[in-house]
Amino acid sequence: MKKACENFLIVTNTKKDHEMKSANKLKELIEALGARASVVIGDSEEHLTHIDADKFENVDCVVVMGGDGTILRVSHAIEGTGLPMIGVNLGTVGFLTEVGPDDMERMLDRLMNGDYSIEERMMLKGRVFKKIASGADNAPCEKRQEVAVINALNDIVLAREDALQLISVKISLNGSYFDTTEADGILISTPTGSTGYNLSAGGPIVNPGTKLLVLTPISPYSLTRRSIVFGAEDKITLELMRKRKNSEPSGLASFDGYRNVPMQIGDYVEVSASDEKLRLIKLEDQSVYQVLQKKLGMR
Fold first, then answer.
1. Is 68 a catalytic residue?
2. Between 250 and 49, whose confidence is greater?
3. Which listed residue (43, 68, 155, 184) is catalytic?
């Protein structure tokens, strides 16, 4: 038995929860049972970054109403708090959500009686390094400066920005050269993220309880480039290179698809397992394979 939840923070996506009907219904159910709840909007990063710190005080559980995209945004907003999260699916597939809107009363009964488990999901840490100008014309630039450290629950991608051209990405593994690939981009996902962009890019589905990194080229200019699975202790560096004279000189480092850092030739992002974990509340004792059968309509 876990701690009985008595104070809830509800984060809802009003694009899916029209007029906040589901969120308000849940708040009424919680208060009718003698517990406390507050509601915030989680439609975008801008909404979530303006959540006052006192909203997290004394909270036992965060209930996310939306789909996987909303859960991804909220995972960044609650980073560092250690708060457990449960998702109510108002979207389509909803791999990260636990229940549907018709199951909210049963969900509350379980949560308020401590009848649930918590599953920890690994996250990625991306360190972005940018070139430092040398100050001399035509002088080679070797120095890089760290400009950002961003965690991601699903994936970190180095991809082309706008032009319909391939980018060239130099891949290093644990400090040693590994490969150079021309593609729309290179994607590194967690096991949780394997059912997201990684899946649509042709990567493998991985048990979300494992600890590993999946590297998948996005539309590579080669028939031999395939996904590669690395250990959670490995460190992968993706550097934007110029392989052809007319190749695209800019790109984008994207974290879970909504936090983006512009990249130029010579910039790189270093990807490794993060110390941060997402704590997902689970009500049902079902395997990832049963979930896949249900979510993907497999028989």
1. yes
2. 250
3. 68
